[in-house]
Amino acid sequence: MPTAYLLLGSNLGDRTATLQAAVAELGRTAGPVRATSGVYETAAWGLTEQPAFLNQALEIQTNLSPAQLLAVCLAAEQHAGRQRLVRWGSRTLDVDILLYDDLVLDTPTLQLPHPRLPERRFALLPLAEIAATLVHPGLGCTVAELLAECSDELAVTRVNGEPR
Ligand code: X6L
Ligand code: MG
Ligand code: MG
């Protein structure tokens, strides 16, 4: 069964409860959650005048295709009450697919691996906690190496949770 890595993000409402509900929902709709990183509080990228995020990375096993997986990720965002008002604006829940096996894909609706992953400490640090030795299929280096080379200096602080 394919393995995918997801990044959850929330900076509106009860962020912790939203992440917990999303992990449970994705376990039912996408497939078994094999690993969860700790939860990280992270300064907002893009529109910096917005509340800090909680971000968390997940490893899931799934029989869904990438397009089907994207659909269940967007459904989880809807169930969390996400409203898309402003590009890069505050959101109750964002679910991004970071990697899907060693697939490299470039379509208008889905790019894999996530094209901005190497630049974002808020994604690399949680991901490194559960998949440090995973090789990025486009770049040929590990997640730990990407993290070591990442020049993003926005604050990323682990707030709780043991990796499992
Ligand atoms: C110039 C202008 C350079 C905009 C970069 C970066 C825009 C990231 C959007 C950018 C730019 C984004 C999260 C976030 C967002 C998140 C944290 C985005 C989309 N999502 N900040 N900002 N965590 N910490 O999940 O990533 S909006
Ligand atoms: Mg995102
Ligand atoms: Mg998204």
Main sheet makeup: 6 strands, antiparallel
**N-C termini distance:** 20 Å
Helix-strand sequence: EHEEEHEEEHHE
Q: Tell me the helix content.
A: 25-40%
- Helix- and strand-based class? alpha+beta
What is the total tally of β strands?
8
Number of helices: 4
The poorly predicted ranges are none
Computed CA radius of gyration, to the nearest angstrom: 14 Å
The 3D shape can be described as globular
pLDDT averaged residue by residue: 96
Organism: Hymenobacter terrestris
Pathway: Cofactor biosynthesis; tetrahydrofolate biosynthesis; 2-amino-4-hydroxy-6-hydroxymethyl-7,8-dihydropteridine diphosphate from 7,8-dihydroneopterin triphosphate: step 4/4
Family: Belongs to the HPPK family.
Protein name: 2-amino-4-hydroxy-6-hydroxymethyldihydropteridine pyrophosphokinase
Gist?
This is 2-amino-4-hydroxy-6-hydroxymethyldihydropteridine pyrophosphokinase. With 164 residues, the protein is α+β, with helices and mostly antiparallel strands.
